[in-house]
Recover the amino acids of this structure.
Protein backbone atom coordinates (compact mmCIF):
# COMPACT_ATOMS: atom_id res chain seq x y z
CA UNK A 1 0.00 0.00 0.00
CA UNK A 2 1.52 3.28 -1.12
CA UNK A 3 1.29 6.36 1.01
CA UNK A 4 -0.30 8.75 -1.47
CA UNK A 5 -1.30 11.24 1.18
CA UNK A 6 2.19 12.59 1.71
CA UNK A 7 3.29 12.58 -1.93
CA UNK A 8 3.89 15.92 -3.64
CA UNK A 9 1.80 17.08 -6.59
CA UNK A 10 4.74 16.54 -8.94
CA UNK A 11 5.16 12.95 -7.72
CA UNK A 12 1.43 12.27 -8.03
CA UNK A 13 1.34 13.57 -11.60
CA UNK A 14 4.63 11.91 -12.60
CA UNK A 15 4.49 9.93 -15.81
CA UNK A 16 5.91 6.73 -14.34
CA UNK A 17 4.16 4.81 -11.53
CA UNK A 18 3.51 5.44 -8.69
CA UNK A 19 2.59 8.77 -10.38
CA UNK A 20 -0.65 8.78 -12.35
CA UNK A 21 0.32 11.23 -15.13
CA UNK A 22 1.01 8.45 -17.63
CA UNK A 23 -2.34 6.82 -16.92
CA UNK A 24 -4.11 10.15 -17.49
CA UNK A 25 -2.30 10.66 -20.81
CA UNK A 26 -3.20 7.11 -21.90
CA UNK A 27 -6.83 7.92 -21.09
CA UNK A 28 -6.60 11.14 -23.09
CA UNK A 29 -5.14 9.27 -26.06
CA UNK A 30 -7.99 6.73 -25.92
CA UNK A 31 -10.55 9.57 -25.70
CA UNK A 32 -9.02 11.28 -28.72
CA UNK A 33 -9.00 8.02 -30.70
CA UNK A 34 -12.70 7.43 -30.04
CA UNK A 35 -13.59 11.06 -30.74
CA UNK A 36 -11.47 11.19 -33.91
CA UNK A 37 -12.71 7.92 -35.40
CA UNK A 38 -16.32 8.73 -34.42
CA UNK A 39 -16.06 12.22 -35.92
CA UNK A 40 -14.63 11.00 -39.23
CA UNK A 41 -17.31 8.31 -39.60
CA UNK A 42 -19.86 10.92 -38.49
CA UNK A 43 -18.63 13.23 -41.27
CA UNK A 44 -19.20 10.43 -43.81
CA UNK A 45 -22.70 9.71 -42.41
CA UNK A 46 -23.53 13.41 -42.18
CA UNK A 47 -22.20 14.29 -45.63
CA UNK A 48 -24.10 11.53 -47.39
CA UNK A 49 -27.13 12.14 -45.15
CA UNK A 50 -27.23 15.80 -46.16
CA UNK A 51 -26.89 14.99 -49.86
CA UNK A 52 -29.66 12.37 -49.61
CA UNK A 53 -31.88 14.71 -47.64
CA UNK A 54 -31.58 17.33 -50.38
CA UNK A 55 -31.65 15.20 -53.50
CA UNK A 56 -33.23 11.94 -52.30
CA UNK A 57 -36.85 10.88 -52.71
CA UNK A 58 -39.56 11.70 -50.19
CA UNK A 59 -39.21 8.32 -48.44
CA UNK A 60 -35.43 8.69 -47.98
CA UNK A 61 -35.96 12.22 -46.68
CA UNK A 62 -38.53 11.11 -44.12
CA UNK A 63 -36.41 8.19 -42.96
CA UNK A 64 -33.42 10.51 -42.51
CA UNK A 65 -35.60 12.95 -40.57
CA UNK A 66 -36.59 10.06 -38.28
CA UNK A 67 -32.90 9.23 -37.76
CA UNK A 68 -31.78 12.77 -36.99
CA UNK A 69 -34.77 13.49 -34.75
CA UNK A 70 -34.42 10.25 -32.77
CA UNK A 71 -30.68 10.52 -32.23
CA UNK A 72 -30.80 14.20 -31.37
CA UNK A 73 -33.53 13.88 -28.75
CA UNK A 74 -32.42 10.72 -26.90
CA UNK A 75 -29.68 11.35 -24.32
CA UNK A 76 -26.25 10.13 -25.43
CA UNK A 77 -25.99 8.21 -22.17
CA UNK A 78 -29.09 6.17 -23.08
CA UNK A 79 -27.80 5.62 -26.62
CA UNK A 80 -24.53 4.34 -25.19
CA UNK A 81 -26.37 1.84 -23.00
CA UNK A 82 -28.54 0.77 -25.94
CA UNK A 83 -25.60 0.18 -28.25
CA UNK A 84 -23.25 -1.16 -25.62
CA UNK A 85 -25.61 -3.61 -23.88
CA UNK A 86 -28.54 -4.26 -26.18
CA UNK A 87 -26.68 -3.83 -29.48
CA UNK A 88 -24.33 -6.85 -29.24
CA UNK A 89 -27.14 -9.14 -27.99
CA UNK A 90 -29.43 -8.12 -30.85
CA UNK A 91 -26.61 -8.44 -33.36
CA UNK A 92 -25.67 -11.92 -32.15
CA UNK A 93 -29.28 -13.08 -32.18
CA UNK A 94 -29.48 -11.91 -35.77
CA UNK A 95 -26.18 -13.59 -36.65
CA UNK A 96 -27.11 -16.91 -35.04
CA UNK A 97 -30.49 -16.80 -36.81
CA UNK A 98 -28.54 -16.51 -40.06
CA UNK A 99 -26.25 -19.33 -38.99
CA UNK A 100 -23.20 -17.11 -38.61
CA UNK A 101 -20.72 -17.24 -35.71
CA UNK A 102 -21.12 -14.84 -32.83
CA UNK A 103 -18.95 -11.75 -32.62
CA UNK A 104 -17.75 -9.68 -29.69
CA UNK A 105 -18.09 -5.94 -29.68
CA UNK A 106 -15.24 -4.27 -27.85
CA UNK A 107 -15.92 -1.17 -25.75
CA UNK A 108 -13.79 0.79 -28.25
CA UNK A 109 -16.00 -0.20 -31.20
CA UNK A 110 -19.19 0.47 -29.24
CA UNK A 111 -17.86 3.89 -28.21
CA UNK A 112 -16.90 4.84 -31.76
CA UNK A 113 -20.31 3.65 -33.01
CA UNK A 114 -22.19 5.83 -30.55
CA UNK A 115 -20.11 8.94 -31.25
CA UNK A 116 -20.38 8.35 -35.02
CA UNK A 117 -24.18 7.94 -34.92
CA UNK A 118 -24.68 11.05 -32.80
CA UNK A 119 -22.22 13.14 -34.81
CA UNK A 120 -23.73 11.88 -38.06
CA UNK A 121 -27.17 13.14 -37.06
CA UNK A 122 -25.95 16.60 -36.09
CA UNK A 123 -23.56 16.92 -39.06
CA UNK A 124 -26.40 15.99 -41.44
CA UNK A 125 -28.31 19.06 -40.30
CA UNK A 126 -25.27 21.38 -40.35
CA UNK A 127 -24.20 20.35 -43.85
CA UNK A 128 -27.77 20.38 -45.18
CA UNK A 129 -28.19 23.94 -43.96
CA UNK A 130 -24.89 24.97 -45.52
CA UNK A 131 -25.72 23.40 -48.89
CA UNK A 132 -29.16 25.01 -48.92
CA UNK A 133 -27.54 28.40 -48.33
CA UNK A 134 -25.69 28.14 -51.67
CA UNK A 135 -27.49 30.20 -54.34
CA UNK A 136 -29.10 27.84 -56.88
CA UNK A 137 -27.77 30.06 -59.66
CA UNK A 138 -24.18 29.03 -58.90
CA UNK A 139 -24.97 25.34 -59.39
CA UNK A 140 -27.03 26.10 -62.50
CA UNK A 141 -24.21 28.18 -63.93
CA UNK A 142 -21.78 25.30 -63.40
CA UNK A 143 -24.22 22.89 -65.00
CA UNK A 144 -24.73 25.15 -68.01
CA UNK A 145 -20.95 25.26 -68.45
CA UNK A 146 -21.09 21.50 -68.84
CA UNK A 147 -19.44 20.51 -65.54
CA UNK A 148 -19.97 16.94 -64.41
CA UNK A 149 -21.77 16.44 -61.05
CA UNK A 150 -18.55 15.47 -59.29
CA UNK A 151 -16.72 18.51 -60.65
CA UNK A 152 -19.60 20.72 -59.53
CA UNK A 153 -19.34 19.24 -56.05
CA UNK A 154 -15.56 19.67 -55.89
CA UNK A 155 -15.33 23.14 -57.40
CA UNK A 156 -18.61 24.85 -56.47
CA UNK A 157 -20.55 23.08 -53.71
CA UNK A 158 -17.68 22.14 -51.38
CA UNK A 159 -15.84 25.49 -51.42
CA UNK A 160 -19.12 27.32 -50.94
CA UNK A 161 -20.52 25.16 -48.15
CA UNK A 162 -17.35 25.04 -46.03
CA UNK A 163 -17.39 28.68 -44.83
CA UNK A 164 -20.99 28.26 -43.63
CA UNK A 165 -20.55 24.76 -42.21
CA UNK A 166 -17.15 25.07 -40.49
CA UNK A 167 -18.27 26.89 -37.31
CA UNK A 168 -20.92 24.21 -36.76
CA UNK A 169 -18.47 21.43 -37.57
CA UNK A 170 -15.83 22.76 -35.17
CA UNK A 171 -18.46 22.98 -32.44
CA UNK A 172 -19.44 19.36 -33.14
CA UNK A 173 -15.84 18.20 -32.91
CA UNK A 174 -15.67 19.72 -29.42
CA UNK A 175 -18.93 17.97 -28.54
CA UNK A 176 -17.43 14.69 -29.80
CA UNK A 177 -14.38 15.04 -27.53
CA UNK A 178 -16.63 15.83 -24.56
CA UNK A 179 -19.09 13.03 -25.33
CA UNK A 180 -16.31 10.46 -24.97
CA UNK A 181 -16.46 11.18 -21.23
CA UNK A 182 -19.87 9.48 -21.14
CA UNK A 183 -18.20 6.17 -21.98
CA UNK A 184 -16.88 6.25 -18.41
CA UNK A 185 -20.33 5.07 -17.37
CA UNK A 186 -19.87 1.74 -19.16
CA UNK A 187 -16.38 1.29 -17.75
CA UNK A 188 -14.38 2.38 -20.79
CA UNK A 189 -11.09 3.70 -19.44
CA UNK A 190 -11.04 7.08 -21.18
CA UNK A 191 -9.75 10.26 -19.54
CA UNK A 192 -12.66 10.99 -17.19
CA UNK A 193 -12.85 7.45 -15.82
CA UNK A 194 -9.09 7.10 -15.25
CA UNK A 195 -9.09 10.51 -13.54
CA UNK A 196 -11.87 9.28 -11.26
CA UNK A 197 -9.95 6.06 -10.57
CA UNK A 198 -6.76 7.99 -9.82
CA UNK A 199 -8.74 10.29 -7.54
CA UNK A 200 -10.40 7.42 -5.69
CA UNK A 201 -7.12 5.51 -5.24
CA UNK A 202 -5.00 8.42 -4.06
CA UNK A 203 -7.80 10.32 -2.29
CA UNK A 204 -6.57 13.48 -4.06
CA UNK A 205 -9.95 14.05 -5.72
CA UNK A 206 -9.64 17.72 -6.59
CA UNK A 207 -6.14 17.38 -8.04
CA UNK A 208 -6.85 14.59 -10.52
CA UNK A 209 -10.28 15.78 -11.65
CA UNK A 210 -8.83 19.28 -12.22
CA UNK A 211 -5.88 17.78 -14.10
CA UNK A 212 -8.28 15.91 -16.38
CA UNK A 213 -10.30 19.11 -16.88
CA UNK A 214 -7.12 20.93 -17.83
CA UNK A 215 -6.29 18.27 -20.43
CA UNK A 216 -9.77 18.61 -21.96
CA UNK A 217 -9.35 22.40 -21.98
CA UNK A 218 -6.00 22.12 -23.76
CA UNK A 219 -7.60 19.88 -26.38
CA UNK A 220 -10.43 22.36 -26.92
CA UNK A 221 -8.11 25.38 -27.09
CA UNK A 222 -5.83 23.66 -29.63
CA UNK A 223 -8.84 22.48 -31.67
CA UNK A 224 -10.29 25.99 -31.66
CA UNK A 225 -7.01 27.40 -32.91
CA UNK A 226 -6.75 24.80 -35.69
CA UNK A 227 -10.35 25.29 -36.78
CA UNK A 228 -9.91 29.07 -36.82
CA UNK A 229 -6.91 28.68 -39.14
CA UNK A 230 -8.98 26.38 -41.34
CA UNK A 231 -11.83 28.90 -41.34
CA UNK A 232 -9.48 31.69 -42.39
CA UNK A 233 -8.26 29.47 -45.20
CA UNK A 234 -11.69 28.57 -46.59
CA UNK A 235 -12.89 32.15 -46.12
CA UNK A 236 -10.17 33.74 -48.24
CA UNK A 237 -11.63 35.52 -51.22
CA UNK A 238 -14.92 36.02 -49.42
CA UNK A 239 -16.08 39.51 -48.65
CA UNK A 240 -16.24 40.18 -44.94
CA UNK A 241 -19.14 42.21 -43.67
CA UNK B 1 -51.91 22.72 -46.67
CA UNK B 2 -50.04 21.16 -43.77
CA UNK B 3 -52.61 18.35 -43.54
CA UNK B 4 -52.28 17.63 -47.25
CA UNK B 5 -48.52 17.26 -46.81
CA UNK B 6 -48.86 14.79 -43.97
CA UNK B 7 -51.29 12.51 -45.81
CA UNK B 8 -48.92 11.37 -48.54
CA UNK B 9 -48.98 7.66 -49.36
CA UNK B 10 -45.46 6.86 -48.14
CA UNK B 11 -46.04 8.70 -44.86
CA UNK B 12 -49.16 6.63 -44.20
CA UNK B 13 -47.13 3.51 -44.96
CA UNK B 14 -44.35 4.70 -42.63
CA UNK B 15 -46.83 5.45 -39.85
CA UNK B 16 -48.42 2.02 -40.30
CA UNK B 17 -44.99 0.40 -40.24
CA UNK B 18 -44.06 2.13 -36.98
CA UNK B 19 -47.47 1.33 -35.50
CA UNK B 20 -46.98 -2.33 -36.40
CA UNK B 21 -43.48 -2.28 -34.89
CA UNK B 22 -44.91 -0.69 -31.76
CA UNK B 23 -47.72 -3.27 -31.52
CA UNK B 24 -45.25 -6.11 -32.10
CA UNK B 25 -43.04 -4.81 -29.31
CA UNK B 26 -46.01 -4.37 -27.00
CA UNK B 27 -47.24 -7.93 -27.56
CA UNK B 28 -44.05 -9.93 -27.91
CA UNK B 29 -41.76 -8.28 -25.39
CA UNK B 30 -41.75 -8.53 -21.66
CA UNK B 31 -43.53 -5.62 -19.99
CA UNK B 32 -44.87 -7.27 -16.81
CA UNK B 33 -42.35 -5.36 -14.66
CA UNK B 34 -43.99 -2.01 -15.40
CA UNK B 35 -46.77 -2.17 -12.74
CA UNK B 36 -44.21 -3.03 -10.03
CA UNK B 37 -42.09 -0.02 -10.85
CA UNK B 38 -44.74 2.43 -12.11
CA UNK B 39 -44.73 4.56 -8.95
CA UNK B 40 -40.93 4.76 -8.88
CA UNK B 41 -40.76 5.61 -12.59
CA UNK B 42 -43.17 8.49 -12.07
CA UNK B 43 -41.10 9.72 -9.12
CA UNK B 44 -37.97 9.60 -11.24
CA UNK B 45 -39.75 11.40 -14.06
CA UNK B 46 -40.87 14.13 -11.66
CA UNK B 47 -37.29 14.51 -10.45
CA UNK B 48 -35.98 14.80 -14.02
CA UNK B 49 -38.57 17.44 -14.88
CA UNK B 50 -37.98 19.44 -11.70
CA UNK B 51 -34.23 19.29 -12.30
CA UNK B 52 -34.65 20.37 -15.93
CA UNK B 53 -36.95 23.31 -15.18
CA UNK B 54 -35.17 24.58 -12.06
CA UNK B 55 -31.66 24.44 -13.54
CA UNK B 56 -32.80 26.01 -16.82
CA UNK B 57 -34.43 28.94 -15.02
CA UNK B 58 -31.54 29.41 -12.58
CA UNK B 59 -29.02 29.02 -15.39
CA UNK B 60 -30.81 31.54 -17.54
CA UNK B 61 -30.92 34.11 -14.73
CA UNK B 62 -27.22 33.51 -14.09
CA UNK B 63 -26.32 33.84 -17.77
CA UNK B 64 -27.64 37.42 -17.99
CA UNK B 65 -24.90 39.01 -15.84
CA UNK B 66 -22.32 36.71 -17.49
CA UNK B 67 -23.38 37.90 -20.94
CA UNK B 68 -23.64 41.56 -19.86
CA UNK B 69 -20.19 41.47 -18.28
CA UNK B 70 -18.74 40.34 -21.61
CA UNK B 71 -20.61 42.95 -23.65
CA UNK B 72 -20.25 46.09 -21.56
CA UNK B 73 -18.54 45.14 -18.29
CA UNK B 74 -15.14 46.40 -17.08
CA UNK B 75 -12.14 44.51 -18.50
CA UNK B 76 -11.38 42.17 -15.54
CA UNK B 77 -15.05 41.21 -15.19
CA UNK B 78 -15.39 40.61 -18.93
CA UNK B 79 -12.25 38.47 -18.86
CA UNK B 80 -13.59 36.47 -15.92
CA UNK B 81 -16.96 35.88 -17.57
CA UNK B 82 -15.26 34.84 -20.80
CA UNK B 83 -12.98 32.40 -18.98
CA UNK B 84 -15.99 30.94 -17.16
CA UNK B 85 -17.72 30.25 -20.48
CA UNK B 86 -14.54 28.74 -21.97
CA UNK B 87 -14.06 26.39 -19.03
CA UNK B 88 -17.69 25.27 -18.88
CA UNK B 89 -17.84 24.73 -22.65
CA UNK B 90 -14.38 23.18 -22.88
CA UNK B 91 -14.77 20.36 -20.37
CA UNK B 92 -17.27 17.48 -20.22
CA UNK B 93 -20.27 17.99 -17.94
CA UNK B 94 -19.69 14.57 -16.37
CA UNK B 95 -16.26 15.74 -15.23
CA UNK B 96 -17.75 18.97 -13.85
CA UNK B 97 -20.35 17.03 -11.88
CA UNK B 98 -17.71 14.70 -10.47
CA UNK B 99 -15.39 17.62 -9.73
CA UNK B 100 -18.10 19.29 -7.67
CA UNK B 101 -19.36 16.15 -5.95
CA UNK B 102 -16.18 14.17 -5.32
CA UNK B 103 -13.66 17.03 -5.51
CA UNK B 104 -15.34 19.75 -3.45
CA UNK B 105 -17.20 17.12 -1.45
CA UNK B 106 -13.87 15.69 -0.29
CA UNK B 107 -12.74 19.09 1.02
CA UNK B 108 -15.83 20.06 2.96
CA UNK B 109 -15.27 17.62 5.87
CA UNK B 110 -11.94 19.34 6.59
CA UNK B 111 -13.45 22.83 6.83
CA UNK B 112 -13.62 23.52 10.58
CA UNK B 113 -17.08 24.01 11.99
CA UNK B 114 -18.86 22.98 8.80
CA UNK B 115 -19.94 19.63 10.20
CA UNK B 116 -21.94 21.37 12.90
CA UNK B 117 -23.43 24.03 10.60
CA UNK B 118 -27.05 23.95 9.43
CA UNK B 119 -25.88 23.55 5.83
CA UNK B 120 -24.11 20.22 6.48
CA UNK B 121 -27.12 17.91 5.73
CA UNK B 122 -27.38 19.57 2.31
CA UNK B 123 -23.67 19.20 1.62
CA UNK B 124 -23.72 15.42 1.98
CA UNK B 125 -26.77 15.12 -0.27
CA UNK B 126 -26.03 14.77 -4.01
CA UNK B 127 -28.97 17.02 -5.00
CA UNK B 128 -27.32 20.43 -4.51
CA UNK B 129 -24.25 19.33 -6.47
CA UNK B 130 -26.41 18.13 -9.36
CA UNK B 131 -28.36 21.40 -9.30
CA UNK B 132 -25.25 23.59 -9.20
CA UNK B 133 -23.44 21.64 -11.93
CA UNK B 134 -26.40 21.70 -14.32
CA UNK B 135 -27.11 25.36 -13.58
CA UNK B 136 -23.50 26.41 -14.23
CA UNK B 137 -23.45 24.36 -17.42
CA UNK B 138 -26.65 25.97 -18.74
CA UNK B 139 -25.37 29.42 -17.78
CA UNK B 140 -22.07 28.79 -19.57
CA UNK B 141 -23.65 27.71 -22.85
CA UNK B 142 -26.51 30.20 -22.75
CA UNK B 143 -24.15 33.02 -21.67
CA UNK B 144 -22.37 32.70 -24.99
CA UNK B 145 -25.67 32.88 -26.91
CA UNK B 146 -26.95 35.78 -24.83
CA UNK B 147 -23.69 37.69 -25.37
CA UNK B 148 -24.35 37.60 -29.09
CA UNK B 149 -27.98 38.54 -28.56
CA UNK B 150 -27.12 41.54 -26.36
CA UNK B 151 -24.50 42.72 -28.82
CA UNK B 152 -26.96 42.31 -31.68
CA UNK B 153 -29.66 44.63 -30.36
CA UNK B 154 -29.72 47.75 -32.56
CA UNK B 155 -27.79 50.63 -30.97
CA UNK B 156 -30.54 53.10 -31.95
CA UNK B 157 -33.07 51.42 -29.67
CA UNK B 158 -30.80 51.81 -26.66
CA UNK B 159 -29.94 55.39 -27.65
CA UNK B 160 -33.65 56.17 -27.95
CA UNK B 161 -34.19 54.95 -24.40
CA UNK B 162 -31.22 57.02 -23.28
CA UNK B 163 -32.56 60.11 -25.06
CA UNK B 164 -35.88 59.71 -23.26
CA UNK B 165 -33.96 59.99 -20.01
CA UNK B 166 -34.35 56.36 -18.96
CA UNK B 167 -32.13 55.08 -16.19
CA UNK B 168 -29.57 52.54 -17.53
CA UNK B 169 -31.23 49.83 -15.46
CA UNK B 170 -34.63 50.74 -16.90
CA UNK B 171 -33.17 50.55 -20.41
CA UNK B 172 -31.86 47.08 -19.59
CA UNK B 173 -35.16 45.95 -18.10
CA UNK B 174 -37.51 47.41 -20.69
CA UNK B 175 -35.53 47.45 -23.96
CA UNK B 176 -32.21 45.62 -23.96
CA UNK B 177 -33.17 42.41 -22.15
CA UNK B 178 -36.57 41.85 -23.84
CA UNK B 179 -35.06 42.49 -27.27
CA UNK B 180 -32.14 40.11 -26.55
CA UNK B 181 -34.50 37.40 -25.27
CA UNK B 182 -36.54 37.71 -28.45
CA UNK B 183 -33.38 36.98 -30.40
CA UNK B 184 -32.42 33.86 -28.42
CA UNK B 185 -35.94 32.42 -28.34
CA UNK B 186 -35.47 30.32 -31.52
CA UNK B 187 -32.30 28.74 -30.09
CA UNK B 188 -33.90 28.06 -26.71
CA UNK B 189 -35.63 24.90 -27.96
CA UNK B 190 -32.31 23.27 -28.82
CA UNK B 191 -30.68 24.43 -25.59
CA UNK B 192 -33.52 23.00 -23.49
CA UNK B 193 -33.29 19.64 -25.25
CA UNK B 194 -29.53 19.62 -24.66
CA UNK B 195 -30.21 20.36 -21.00
CA UNK B 196 -32.76 17.51 -20.88
CA UNK B 197 -30.15 15.19 -22.35
CA UNK B 198 -27.66 16.33 -19.72
CA UNK B 199 -29.90 15.49 -16.75
CA UNK B 200 -29.29 11.69 -16.72
CA UNK B 201 -25.62 12.41 -15.88
CA UNK B 202 -26.66 13.20 -12.31
CA UNK B 203 -27.50 9.51 -11.88
CA UNK B 204 -23.72 8.94 -11.61
CA UNK B 205 -23.68 10.80 -8.29
CA UNK B 206 -26.67 8.84 -6.94
CA UNK B 207 -29.47 11.29 -7.69
CA UNK B 208 -32.43 9.02 -8.40
CA UNK B 209 -33.85 10.44 -11.64
CA UNK B 210 -35.61 8.65 -14.52
CA UNK B 211 -32.36 7.20 -15.80
CA UNK B 212 -31.34 5.87 -12.39
CA UNK B 213 -34.72 4.17 -11.90
CA UNK B 214 -34.40 2.36 -15.22
CA UNK B 215 -30.82 1.38 -14.44
CA UNK B 216 -32.09 -0.17 -11.23
CA UNK B 217 -34.88 -2.00 -13.09
CA UNK B 218 -32.28 -3.43 -15.46
CA UNK B 219 -30.15 -4.66 -12.58
CA UNK B 220 -33.03 -6.15 -10.61
CA UNK B 221 -34.95 -7.87 -13.43
CA UNK B 222 -32.05 -8.83 -15.76
CA UNK B 223 -34.18 -7.70 -18.72
CA UNK B 224 -32.00 -6.32 -21.49
CA UNK B 225 -34.08 -4.47 -24.07
CA UNK B 226 -37.40 -3.41 -22.62
CA UNK B 227 -36.33 -0.96 -19.90
CA UNK B 228 -33.84 0.68 -22.25
CA UNK B 229 -36.46 1.07 -24.98
CA UNK B 230 -39.01 2.55 -22.60
CA UNK B 231 -36.31 4.85 -21.21
CA UNK B 232 -35.44 6.08 -24.70
CA UNK B 233 -39.14 6.56 -25.47
CA UNK B 234 -39.60 8.57 -22.27
CA UNK B 235 -36.85 11.02 -23.20
CA UNK B 236 -38.16 11.17 -26.76
CA UNK B 237 -41.60 12.19 -25.49
CA UNK B 238 -40.11 14.78 -23.12
CA UNK B 239 -38.07 16.25 -25.99
CA UNK B 240 -41.22 16.35 -28.14
CA UNK B 241 -43.09 18.12 -25.36
CA UNK B 242 -40.32 20.75 -25.06
CA UNK B 243 -40.44 21.35 -28.81
CA UNK B 244 -44.23 21.76 -28.77
CA UNK B 245 -44.07 24.23 -25.87
CA UNK B 246 -41.30 26.23 -27.54
CA UNK B 247 -43.21 26.36 -30.82
CA UNK B 248 -46.26 27.61 -28.95
CA UNK B 249 -44.37 30.38 -27.16
CA UNK B 250 -42.51 31.38 -30.29
CA UNK B 251 -45.75 31.68 -32.26
CA UNK B 252 -47.22 33.72 -29.42
CA UNK B 253 -44.30 36.14 -29.27
CA UNK B 254 -44.34 36.52 -33.03
CA UNK B 255 -48.08 37.23 -33.01
CA UNK B 256 -47.51 39.94 -30.41
CA UNK B 257 -44.74 41.49 -32.48
CA UNK B 258 -46.77 41.67 -35.68
CA UNK B 259 -49.98 42.98 -34.13
Amino acid sequence: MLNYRDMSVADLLALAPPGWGGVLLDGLWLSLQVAGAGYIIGLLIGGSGALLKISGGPLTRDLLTCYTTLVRSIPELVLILLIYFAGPVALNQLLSALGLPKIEISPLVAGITVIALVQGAYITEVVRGAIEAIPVGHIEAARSLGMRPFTIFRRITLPELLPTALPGLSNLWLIATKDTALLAVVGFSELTLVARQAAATTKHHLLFLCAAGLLYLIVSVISNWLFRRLENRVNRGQSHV
Amino acid sequence: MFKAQVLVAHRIALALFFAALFALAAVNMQWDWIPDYAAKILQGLAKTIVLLISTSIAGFILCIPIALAQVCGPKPLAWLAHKFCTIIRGTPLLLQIWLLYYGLGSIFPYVPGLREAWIWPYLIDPWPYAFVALTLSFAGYEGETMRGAFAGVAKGELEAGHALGMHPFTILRRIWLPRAIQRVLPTLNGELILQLKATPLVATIAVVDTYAIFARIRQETYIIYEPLLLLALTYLLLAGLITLLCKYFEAKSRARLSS
About this structure: Chain A has one domain: 31-189+209-234.
